[in-house]
Amino acid sequence: MHYRRLGQTDLKVSVIGFGAWGIGGPAMVGNIPIGWGAVDDNISRKAIHIAVKKGINFFDTADFYGLGHSEKLLGQYFSKNWDGVILATKVGHRVSSDNKIILDYSKKYIKKACELSLKRLQKDVIDLYQLHSAKLAHLQAGECIEAMEELKSEGKIRYWGISLNTFNPQPEAEFLIKNHLGNVFQLVLNVINQRALSEVIPLAQKNKYGIIARMPLQFGVLTKSINRNKVFPIDDHRHFRLNPILNELHDKLDFFWDLADKYNISPTTLALSFILMQKGVTTAIPGIKTPEQADLNSNYLLNIQKEDLQTIYDAYSSELKYLVDKFEELG
After folding, report:
1. Tell me: the pLDDT tens digits for 113-125?
2. 3 flagged as catalytic
3. Which end of the chain is more exposed for a tag (fewer CB within 10 A), N or C?
4. DSSP characters for 12-57?
């Protein structure tokens, strides 16, 4: 495992992190699935164990994953022994009294939520606290920024950043950069969705922000383990985000499977290698729910030949970016 400094922080994170959304379990808010279907906590603990054994020291979660269950599970596993482990979590989503998803970036809520996260995590300080997809209007209002700066001065968090919008990450990134705020951007980057490569990543790199690449396997599609006829259960968010275009996605990815065969590696390893070859990217955080996933995601990464990188870029420009538009329509 290799490690990179996360922007201008003193956090040296593994290039492969542990995306902990999935281990949160099959939470629902009303009729909206906010998880990845059923999970077994014992299997999740084994996955964490293998990840640590393979050298993963960076774990990314959120208070909304499993409505706190993901944080609680990590807290139970590491308990008071967080030495050498870097923990990132997020804030800004909550459930209203009438069982709806609410975005809340008020100072009062963020500070209260931080205390609850620390309790679930059984930690005294959060290494990286992230605004969970806050919009430009939230940043301009200023309360969320005040909350983050106060939490930092109080010693409750070490650094803060933002998990940027999946499809339009630029406005919020530009605002924080212009105002010299925060330390880290988490954004979507993978073979299928390369939107961030054009402007946000170069700008962030120039201004020395750390970059966390989320959704590196595009909901698992890039592992080639999801059959084109797969139907996800209703408590898995992929039921509405992926099922409607799964068949079409498969039709566009033959070139990628061929490239993996050329290098005699798994599509997973190729997908992660592509991301970590992009200038400015610090770490990628594939979702991990099983020991097998923890092992596979930690395999040796390779240098992709220049002509093959160009093939991936060209596939995005000619075919895949139109599928990203469809993902955006699905929400």
Report:
1. 999 999 999 999 9
2. no
3. C
4. EEESB-EE-SGGG---EETTEE-SBS---HHHHHHHHHHHHHTT--
Tokens of 269: 């390893």
Per annotation, catalytic residue among 65, 77, 105, 209:
65
The pTM (predicted TM-score) of the whole model is: 0.96
Cα–Cα distances (Å) from 52 to 42, 97, 100, in that order, read 16, 38, 36
DSSP 230-276: ----TTBTHHHHTGGGHHHHHHH-HHHHHHHHHHTS-HHHHHHHHHH
List pLDDT tens digits, range 30-88.
989 999 889 999 999 999 999 999 999 999 999 999 999 999 999 999 987 899 999 99
Q: Among all chains, which residue has been given the structure tokens 């909206």?
A: 32
CA angle 109, 111, 116 (to 5 degrees): 90
CATH of domain 3-330: 3.20.20.100
Which residues pair with residue 284 across a beta bridge?
A: 16, 213
With cut-offs at 50, 70 and 90, classify the pLDDT of residue 252: very high
How many contiguous H segments (helices) and E segments (strands) does the chain have?
14, 14
Contacts of 206 (CB under 8 A, 6+ apart): none
H/E run at residue 60: strand 58-60
